[in-house]
Amino acid sequence: MARVNVLHRLDKQSSLATIQRRLDAYGERLRAIEERPGGKSMRGLIYHRRASLLTQVDVARLAGLSQSTYQRIEAGTVSPDLDTLYILMAMFETDLSGLM
User: Strands, DSSP E only, in the chain?
Assistant: First the structure.
């Protein structure tokens, strides 16, 4: 019986270690995106989307974009055109600085 408890505890600890490694890797990817020259993510856009309880797919569909294009806009790897910016500003009832 005691052996089962020890094995269960080891499984929990290894699971926590795996989760911690994944969180660390995720944080490193976020920092890499933010530190990329000219590639600042649009944090305001992400904030407004999450506050509205919308997914990237939802916003992309409403804005007439593909999900991958919208994801790249959020990540800062693609700059949206003026029409898309106006649509996003109207959608989230904010100005341009609110999307940045």
Answer: none
Structural contact between residues 88 and 45, judged by C-beta atoms closer than 8 angstroms: yes
pTM above 0.70, yes or no: no
Separation of CA 47 from chain center = 9
60 & 72 share domain: yes
Give yes or no: residues 77 and 59 share one domain.
Answer: yes
In tens digits, the chain (100 residues) has pLDDT values of 444 444 444 455 567 777 777 777 767 766 665 555 444 668 889 888 888 898 999 999 999 999 999 999 998 888 888 888 889 988 988 888 777 7
Q: In terms of domains, do 29 and 45 share one?
A: no
CA distances from residue 35 to 46, 50, 68 in whole angstroms, order as listed: 17, 22, 21
